[in-house]
Write a structure and sequence with these properties.
3-stranded antiparallel sheet; Rossmann-like_a/b/a_fold; Glu-Q_tRNA(Asp)_Synthase; nucleotide-binding; 3-stranded parallel sheet; 304 residues; alpha/beta; ligase
């Protein structure tokens, strides 16, 4: 049975870009006769103002996007993430890291690495061999094919819109954090555990998150969890050409005319719909989506 989800982070109200992602995930579930869930990804508590989660749920309801089960909050699920981390620690795939961002940047510079990847530093593996008396700040997952760290890990997967995708996890990402220095859980671990616990079969989200997919597939492999199908949707861009986001000041979604907002979101997805009511627009959009993405593709992925 198809089970999809929309998983907003409640750092601010939904904006035009997040409505596109919500609508796409809802449409895919409805087009396949499946269930659609909402998960509030609030593990980064300091960045989540009180009450924003309820604002988001109200915005979705105004747009006719109602979940088939009560929403789930990640902040209540820390024990599950702790169990997963312990499993990975016991198997040797996770190790303690004592490095600060400044130290990582210095180590990379010393190795002649000048560039950053999407604003993130590719971790050079400084603490793989041990902390040498230093104190653990964070917990990292080895990004190599083997525990000895001698072989690069390249992951290949099939995206339902973007097609075949490949990433050398070792060189393009490096060992990545599962539990942060401030004690908060990293997105990568939390999302994998919750997708598996909720039985998610299909993940439909913005194309900016496609880069996260290999990290999540690797965690699924190591934890013995199923890998869902993935579909990454077009992004809404701001006037500067960058992705519209809360971080760059995207305005909260204007819903005095929810039908207009939905038509605009559908247009970004390449769906031309008409109608004056939310119900009419959603019904048309489901039919248009079925024509574009109605076929089910098997979840395909490999590593080497």
């Amino acid at each position: 049975m198809y089970i999809g989800r929309f998983a907003p982070s409640p750092t601010g109200p939904l904006h035009a870009g997040s409505l596109v992602a919500a609508l796409a995930s809802w449409l895919d579930a409805r087009a396949h006769g499946g269930r659609w869930l909402i998960r509030i990804e609030d593990v980064d508590g300091p960045r989540c103002p009180p009450g924003v989660d309820r604002v988001i749920l109200d915005q979705l309801a105004q747009c006719g996007l109602h979940p088939d089960e009560p929403p789930l909050w990640q902040s209540a699920r820390g024990s599950l993430y702790e169990q997963a981390l312990a499993t990975l620690q016991n198997s040797g795939w996770v190790y303690g890291c004592a490095c600060s961002r400044k130290q990582i940047a210095g180590a990379l510079q010393a190795q002649g690495w000048q560039s950053e990847r999407h604003g993130e530093l590719v971790y050079p593996g400084t603490c793989r061999a041990g902390l040498q008396g230093r104190t653990t700040r964070a917990w990292r997952l080895r990004s190599t094919l083997d525990l000895a760290g001698m072989q690069d890990l390249t992951l290949t997967w099939q995206d339902r819109r973007l097609g075949a995708q490949t990433q050398n996890l070792s060189r393009e990402v490096g060992d990545f954090v599962l539990k942060r220095a401030d004690g908060l859980w990293a997105y990568q671990l939390a999302v994998v555990i919750d997708d598996a616990a909720q039985g998610i079969t299909d993940i439909v989200r913005g194309a900016d998150l496609a880069d996260n997919t290999p990290r999540q597939i690797r965690l699924q492999q190591l934890l013995g969890l199923p890998t869902p199908r993935y579909l990454h949707t077009p992004l809404v861009l701001g006037a500067d050409g960058n992705k519209l986001s809360k971080q760059n000041g995207a305005a909260a979604l204007e819903l005095r005319d929810a039908a207009l907002a939905l038509r605009s979101a559908a247009s970004v997805l390449g769906l031309q719909v008409e109608g004056d009511t939310v119900a009419e627009i959603l019904a048309q959009a489901v039919k248009r989506w079925q024509s574009s993405f109605g076929g089910m593709m098997p979840a395909t992925y490999s590593h080497k």
